[in-house]
Amino acid sequence: MRDFLFIIRGGQDRYNQNSPEEMQQHMQDWQQWMDTLAQKDMLVGGQPLMNEAKTLIDGGQKIIDRPLAEGKELIGGYLLIKANSLEHAAGVAKECPSNEYHCSIEVREISPM
Amino acid sequence: MENNNNIDQTLNHLFREESGKMVSVLIKIFGTENIEMAEDVVQDALVKALETWKYNGMPDNPRAWLYRTAKNKAIDVIRRNKHSKLIDFSDPQKQLLTSGYTLETTMDNYWNEDGIKDDFLGMMYGCCHPEISQENQITFILKSLCGFSTKEVAKSFLTSPDTISKRLYRTKEYFRKNRISLQIPTNKQIEERTHTVLSAIYLLFNEGYNSTHADQLIRKDLIGQAMLLCKSLLSNKRTKLPEVYALMALMCFHSARLDSRITREGELILLSKQDRTSWDKVLIQTGEKYLNHAAFGNNLTTYHLEAAIAFQHCAAQQYEDTNWKEILMYYDLLLEIADDPIVFLNRCLVILEYKGPKEALIVLKTMKNTSMLDKYYVYHATLGEIYKRLLNTNLSIKHYERAIKLTQSKQEQQFLKDKIAGKC
């Protein structure tokens, strides 16, 4: 098994229009999805990210008080998983409940040490 | 002030009923190596309830409030310990507690009603692990499952808080080292393990029922807790065994007579002199229902027989109406299952009532192993009573005096002195 990083971007706009019940359901979906991964010993870890950010640009010369990319491109969280191949990992990402809110998931293999 | 009293009472009651369940769920989350962590969370939730309710008034659903608070505090503990080695998150379900995506939902899932009940029962079986001494079992049960403070446990067992702390420490160490699994046992083991749990419950009950505490409140508290524990076994289809129903019936019959056993001054009143109108009829009826439920399967236990005997006493309108024949039959069966000197002595007392002192003396003399019995006050009290009825005053007084020396209980001493004086 190799290690992969899911960078999850966007989807917040649509998600935020949810009713509390729908949000609750979404949390349950995440719980179930991640539980499946954990049971298969594929889950390494992962966290949602806070919206606030500072970004250093121009070779550290300049600091801006926001993430580099916002809106649809805002990174909302990441996940570390184990999979057999890039294709396998992408297949896993396809099941991510946040796809429902049109997020994008970048799947990258972590270079082996 | 009245409001504050009300809050104290509700919280006290709630704590007795719910803290054990909360502790059980939290130990499942934090692991048996972190029992104190679980107890601290529950304690914190209680303190917060006390502070908040006194200030804002009682919430609509105090129980839900308490659970929510405990849950939130547990989330805080997880967040604080995410990177520490204290909690083992390697189990897949626990791994989900370490991600912000799943922490709250996973935490919520631990607290569904059925899960809570099962965890509580699992904890009960864990506390009554056969390798933990019975003394330590019931100490730990009172502290962790019944929400007693160390001081209250000490008071219940008439011992010092230090002794209790040591017992608790040893039990926790045992849990920690052996990673006892807190689960309802498999079907193969369930009867045997339930038997150990019932022994602990009955011991707890007797601590309240037979103990010579002047403090009625402690006694009733212990009795109430023992019955609550037994009842929770009856709420699960895997653990509601006939034996459990039998013990529940037995405790109902006994506690129905609780108030008539002791005078206001704390003196014992004999069964023959008890005011039967003061017996709790509802509790007797409840006991009867449990006893009927106990009558399935083919396992006749001591609880079945003891309950049947207690029921016969409850069913007699007057002492003179007691069905000694039936009771003697139960004692015969009881002796077959448990060759116990106390059962033997009690059977002699039944013979005394049923067939008279001569017969009783003959049976008592067949007893082997009297050297051990010689140190037992009931043996001498029985002989005292038999000789008294045989009008052999000298021997009667001799045995009563010996019995007085052998019991520590003031009530029993007084009772025996009254016997000698011919007051009863």
UniProtKB/TrEMBL annotation, chain A:
Transmembrane segments: none annotated. It comes from the Bacteria. Gene3D superfamilies: Dimeric alpha+beta barrel (3.30.70.1060). Coiled coil: none annotated. Pfam families: YCII. PANTHER family: BLL7171 PROTEIN-RELATED. This is YCII-related domain-containing protein. It comes from Aquimarina aggregata. The lineage of its organism: Bacteria, Pseudomonadati, Bacteroidota, Flavobacteriia, Flavobacteriales.
Automatic annotation (TrEMBL), chain B:
One of its GO terms (biological process) is DNA-templated transcription initiation. Pfam families: DUF6596 (PF20239), Sigma70_r2 (PF04542). Signal peptide: none annotated. One of its GO terms (molecular function) is DNA-binding transcription factor activity. Residues 193-295 form the DUF6596 domain. InterPro entries: DUF6596, RNA_pol_sigma-70_dom, RNA_pol_sigma70_r2, RNA_pol_sigma_r2, RNA_pol_sigma_r3/r4-like. Residues 15-82 form the RNA polymerase sigma-70 region domain. Gene3D superfamilies: 1.10.1740.10. This is RNA polymerase subunit sigma-24. It comes from Aquimarina aggregata. The lineage of its organism: Bacteria, Pseudomonadati, Bacteroidota, Flavobacteriia, Flavobacteriales.
